[in-house]
Structure formats: structure tokens, C-alpha cells
Write a structure and sequence with these properties.
By secondary structure, the chain is of the alpha/beta class. The chain folds into 2 domains: 141 residues, Aspartate Aminotransferase, domain 1 (Alpha-Beta Complex), CATH 3.90.1150.10; 239 residues, Type I PLP-dependent aspartate aminotransferase-like (Major domain) (Aspartate Aminotransferase, domain 2). It has 14 helices and 12 strands. Strands 2-8-7-6-5-3-4 form a 7-stranded mixed sheet, sandwiched between helices. A 3-stranded antiparallel sheet has the order 9-12-11. Strand 5, helix 8 and strand 6 form a beta-alpha-beta unit. Helix 3 packs antiparallel against helix 10, helix 4 packs parallel to helix 10 and helix 5 packs parallel to helix 6.
């Protein structure tokens, strides 16, 4: 049997993963014994709250717990997810038809793309954006219409232009706030406008709010489903990963439009049997219990944000304070702007031993920025700032000589 030398078709449609290049450098330096202060990945470093872990352990001791679970999630978890939406957003959901438990928000998003997309369908996607927003649809055979999204206003106006100049007309609109990577936040007026625009142009809407509980002022981010009539055309993808420091547990949800949820459930029924049942029981406990632990996690991120902005500012790198998410979206310092985000990120790692995510990894309009994850403690953030100050001082000196 002879295999073609070319890559498989779907693999050819995926560009080189920029993160891989940065991660290879990180791995090589660590193998040499270098201490890298790593802000590159949005991987929560704090422990999962004790009561959630205890519920997992308790349930795992049941001899029946090792059996197959349910691909759309056990009823108790879907009921808890609906309860969360009712308490937090005032949105009523039917656990049977409007809630699907997923293996994290990433899996939910990717399988939604499989469920909704025919080959050649055009999807409007913000740029910069979390990679799965575009590449989930690309792997499903869709065509991405990238719209610049360095501000929510820019994105919506770009969507209107894209509708006029796309053939065939787009069928899906993606929104994601609080945004990864830009940390932008929107209010209900934005969602009202987005829903009206989608209904005008017969678009389905996928809203990603995985960072809905990580915010730093008195205004919690809203849900698109709070808009009247949104459930007619939209689903929302959410996650327990950041809210409860449960990233490795892989528990997310897709909620909203019953037809879209049914399509996702049909796809998932062929692909998985759901998460390990004790994980689902523990996730339900997390949602149903008092939310003091969420407030504590939010306060940790806020403290890190404040330390990052202050210490990096003193080091000569002005970073806007994010109002939400676990990231800062930082303009590249002027002396390094021309080199671009990938080269800057590699230099920063090699010379200052600080890892960040290059903005270009999130799309061409992310060039000129890097994403900094709030995943190191305040002591390590200050240590990183001291190294960055030396790095930038050397860069400025070199430029002055030239």
C-alpha cells in the first residue's frame, strides 16, 4: 500500500501552530536549567476548591462510577448548569433540550462547528481570536471571513461590511466576550445589536463566555441569552475551567437554542460518552454550592493584574489594565515593535526568561501585541518585571547607539 506524500486534506488547511515554536524554545531553555517565568498559557495554577475535589473522591468510590456516562451530560449536571444561568443571568433554560454538558468549552465549540457546518459555509470570526473559533470551522469544511476585532465597535461594523461583500452569504457569527486574547468586555447593548444584526441577515450566533466569572469591577459580564429572542438563533459556550480552577477536569457547557443543542447532542452521541461521572457530579456540586471560592479566585486574579500593570509600568512597559478575563493584552514595547510579536516573544524568553504568547498566534490583526496570562503569583510577576526592565534597558541602549 502506497501513501501519498502530501499532508492529509484537513491537516493542510491548518497553519503551523505558532505556539509550538514558542513552546519548543521554552522546552529547550528549561532543559538547560533556565527558570522560565511562564505567562504564555492560560492554565490556572491555583488548586481546585477542596469541596469540589472531595465530591469527586466520594463519588469515585461508588463501584458503579466507572460505567459509561451520558454523551450530553448527566441530568444532575445539566440541571445545575440551567440553575447557574437562572441565578447569574436571569435566563431560563430547559435542562433536557437547551443544555449540553461538554468536555470543556473547546470540545463543545469544535463539535458545534461539525454539527452546523456544510463544506463551503462562510463563518464570520473575530480576529484576533482564540484559535478554535476559526479552526474548529475550518476543520469542519467551513470558510472563515476574518473581521478585525481590536474593539467591539470595530467588530460589529466589520460584520455589517462582511455581509455585503461575502459570497455565499455567511451563515454563522461568532462573538466572544470577555475576549481571549484581548480581554475586552461588552454590555447588553452590544449583544442587542449583535442579535438584531444576526436576525436581519439570517445568521446563527455562537457566543463564547468562558471568562464570564473573571472580572474586576462591579459590573459582571452579561450573557447574550439575556437579550429577548436570542435563543431563537443563538447558543452560548461556557466553562468551569477558569471559574473554579478546573481546567484539567474538562467540563463545559453549550446552552440556548434547542435545535442547535440537539444537533450538537447528535454529533456527540457518535463521538463520546461524556466525562467520567464523578467529574460531572463534582461539577454539579461546584455550581450548586455557595460561590465564595469563585470570589476568592477572582480576587487572586485581580491582585495579579494590579501587580502586573504596576510592576511592568515601572519597568518601562505600559500595559493596559484588563477589566475582565485572566489575560492582559499588551502592546509590544516600541523598541521591538518592528520585529513583530513572535520575534519579540522569543527574545523576551531567551534574554529575560519570561514567556508570553505572541499576538500573531491569535490572527493577523493580533500582530503588535502579546498576551500575558495571570498564571504566576505576585512574587514571580515582580521577578519577571525586574528581568523585563533589564531587557528593555539593554534594547533602548542598543537603539540609542545605533
Amino acid at each position: 500500500m502506497t501513501f501519498a506524500r502530501e499532508e492529509f486534506h484537513k491537516i493542510r488547511r491548518l497553519p503551523p501552530y505558532v505556539f509550538e515554536e514558542v513552546n519548543r524554545l521554552k522546552g529547550r531553555l528549561r532543559a538547560q536549567g533556565v527558570d522560565i517565568i511562564d505567562f504564555g498559557m492560560g492554565n490556572p495554577d491555583m488548586p481546585t476548591p477542596k469541596h469540589i475535589v472531595e465530591k469527586l473522591v466520594e463519588t469515585a468510590r461508588d463501584p458503579k462510577s466507572g460505567r459509561y456516562s451520558a454523551s450530553k451530560g448527566i441530568h444532575g449536571l445539566r440541571k445545575a448548569m440551567a440553575g447557574y444561568y437562572d441565578r447569574r443571568f436571569g435566563v431560563k433554560l430547559d435542562p433536557e433540550t437547551e443544555v449540553i454538558a461538554t468536555l470543556g468549552s473547546k470540545e463543545g465549540f469544535a463539535n458545534l462547528a461539525q454539527a452546523l457546518t456544510s463544506p463551503g459555509d462562510v463563518v464570520i470570526c473575530p480576529n484576533p481570536a482564540y484559535p478554535i473559533h476559526a479552526y474548529g470551522f475550518i476543520m469542519a469544511g467551513g470558510v472563515i471571513r476574518h473581521v478585525p476585532a481590536l474593539s467591539p465597535e470595530e467588530y460589529l461594523s466589520g460584520v455589517s461590511r462582511a455581509m455585503k461583500h461575502s459570497a455565499p452569504p455567511p451563515s454563522v457569527l461568532i462573538v466572544s466576550y470577555p475576549s481571549n486574547p484581548t480581554a475586552q468586555w461588552v454590555d447588553l447593548d452590544f449583544y442587542r445589536e449583535a442579535v438584531a444584526l444576526a436576525k436581519k441577515h439570517d445568521l446563527l450566533v455562537l457566543s463564547d463566555i468562558a471568562y464570564s466569572e473573571i472580572y474586576f469591577d462591579d459590573n459582571p459580564p452579561p450573557s447574550l441569552l439575556q437579550v429577548e429572542g436570542a435563543k431563537d438563533i443563538a447558543v452560548e459556550v461556557n466553562s468551569l475551567s477558569k471559574t473554579y480552577a478546573m481546567a484539567g477536569w474538562r467540563v463545559g457547557m453549550v446552552v440556548g437554542n434547542a435545535r442547535m443543542c440537539a444537533a450538537l447532542a447528535r454529533v456527540k452521541s457518535y463521538l463520546d460518552y461524556g466525562a467520567f461521572t464523578p467529574i460531572q457530579v463534582a461539577a454539579a456540586a461546584a455550581l450548586n454550592a455557595p460561590q465564595d471560592c469563585v470570589e476568592e479566585i477572582r480576587a487572586i486574579y485581580k491582585g495579579r493584574r494590579d501587580t502586573l500593570v504596576k510592576s511592568m509600568g515601572q519597568a518601562g512597559w505600559e500595559i493596559p489594565a484588563p477589566v475582565a478575563s485572566m489575560f492582559a493584552w499588551a502592546p509590544i514595547p516600541e523598541a521591538h515593535r518592528e520585529a513583530g510579536s513572535l520575534i519579540f516573544a522569543k527574545r523576551l524568553m531567551e534574554e529575560a526568561h519570561v514567556a508570553v504568547a505572541p499576538g500573531v498566534a491569535f490572527g493577523e490583526y493580533g500582530e503588535g501585541y502579546v498576551r500575558i496570562g495571570l498564571v504566576e503569583n505576585e512574587h514571580r510577576i515582580r521577578q519577571a518585571a525586574r528581568s523585563v526592565k533589564k531587557f528593555l534597558s539593554g534594547s533602548n541602549s542598543a537603539r540609542a547607539v545605533v
